[in-house]
Amino acid sequence: MAKKLSVKFKIIIAVLIAAVLCVVSAVVFRFAVYQPDNLVFRGQSMNVSLSKERKKDYHIGLSSAVADDKPYAYNSEAMFYLQRLVYQPLLQMNNDGALNYVNASKIIFKNSGTEAYASVDSSVRFSNGERLSADIVLKSYEWFMKNETDFADLLSNVASIEKSDDKTLVFHFKEASFENIKVFNIPVVYFDENSKFALGTGSYAVESLVFYGDITLSENEYSKDKQKYEKVVLSPMNYNGLDNLNENQDYDIFLINKETQSDLIKDSKAYHIYEIGQDRGNYLIYNIENLSVRRAVSSLVSGEEFFESTQDSGAYSKGITSAYMKKPNYHSLLRKGNLNDISSLTIAYDHQGVSYSIYSALAEALENSGVSCKEKNVEVLETEQKINADIIVYYGSLSDIVNSSDTKAFFDDYKKINAKSFNKNIEKYFADQNKIAPLSKDTIWYASLAGRDNLGLFD
Asked: For 279-286, what is the mean pLDDT?
């Protein structure tokens, strides 16, 4: 009997060990292979050494100082952090193109894109404990519309904003535009007469601000999102002393120059390097009537291989709205086409950047597919120019390229749009119509100390 029990016991132990090994292997495999799309270099937390006091706070290095007590008025590097930590918007635009509600519970575009109904999330609280309301949001937007800020151009298309009830605002736009979605990414600020600084609904609040010096943030005790750091300090950096900064690990995160500073950061092995996508990048614009041909050309430039062979900076753009757009995105939605009905194509490019490199690689791919190519070189390509070419290699932003007919067609297709799915709908529309193909987007690089919670700044 004892022998039988021993055998059973051994079998049970063996099964348990196997199960544990499977779980451990799965976890190790997950962490070994998982890497965010925008992680350029992975540092090691074993190379990070911080004092007990230093671990309590999160230190952000700024390449440019803040000159006044209204940092929310500027679309600056400091605002990149403050908009996520203090002055949250109605709708947050993430690096991967995802749109998430923050101070709004819902935003719906109606009336062919000329109106938007924004429902305010009244469960959200400012750092003084007061709940967010439609009145506070309205006053915030009115302040931005009356004052000279970096958001003036964006707000110039807002005809009026009215309160329809205690939780709902109606935005009336002068005309429909893809850019109107960005109006809801403007920070919401509350001017409380009892507070020295404007308040926000983020997980931190401004505790002190020194002109051209430090901005110190302390935790917003009323925020639903609790953070692990007692304080966040934003400080102007002296990049001339980057060797010592890197060695001393004084900062948890700071903007870096890819060409001149990335090797130094990598050598330290203490920092991750992330890249954040920008609006501007390289595109192909089509003047080809045949949709199947347009799709076939887009397939030739799709993928990392074409990007890496033609461009030495930025990031391959999976989507129209973001380089890191998750599926479904433009390239995943693109349908197959063929070049059977075309024998030659004219490609226009200019002297800017990598336009010639893109042209020559595309021309080679087309000629290998039996399509002869003619080049048209112009000094500078502007979207207003009438270029007599089938394909234009263009560098700029999507807003420069999109015309009113595209905007009208989009809002005719999507008569009622939930703002959260706005970018996904844009991806689908441009993949279906395929008048524009994204090639790449410019990026900026940040160093982030390994093993430290980066407060979701790179989401």
From this structure: 95
